[in-house]
C-alpha cells in the first residue's frame, strides 16, 4: 500500500475569506504578530501496491481533475512517510 498527500491551496491572487476570518480571530484570542493566513485542503490518498512514478502520476491526475480546481487553486503531491 502506498500513501500520498495532496495539499490544495487557493492561488495567491484569489481572495481567501476563510483565511481572513481566521486572521481576524487570532488577535482576539491572544495570538499577535500573525501577518497572513491562507486556508486550504489536505487529502491523504491510499492506493494499492507500492509507491512508484506511475502511481505518483496517477495521484497527480486525481489532484488536477477532482481534488482541486486548477483555475483558482494550486496543488502539490508528495509521498506520505509514516
TrEMBL record:
Enzyme Commission number, as recorded: 6.3.5.3
Chain's role: Part of the phosphoribosylformylglycinamidine synthase complex involved in the purines biosynthetic pathway. Catalyzes the ATP-dependent conversion of formylglycinamide ribonucleotide (FGAR) and glutamine to yield formylglycinamidine ribonucleotide (FGAM) and glutamate. The FGAM synthase complex is composed of three subunits. PurQ produces an ammonia molecule by converting glutamine to glutamate. PurL transfers the ammonia molecule to FGAR to form FGAM in an ATP-dependent manner.
UniProt subcellular location: Cytoplasm
Name of the protein this chain belongs to: Phosphoribosylformylglycinamidine synthase subunit PurS
GO CC terms: cytoplasm
Reaction catalysis annotation: N(2)-formyl-N(1)-(5-phospho-beta-D-ribosyl)glycinamide + L-glutamine + ATP + H2O = 2-formamido-N(1)-(5-O-phospho-beta-D-ribosyl)acetamidine + L-glutamate + ADP + phosphate + H(+)
HAMAP family linked to this entry: PurS
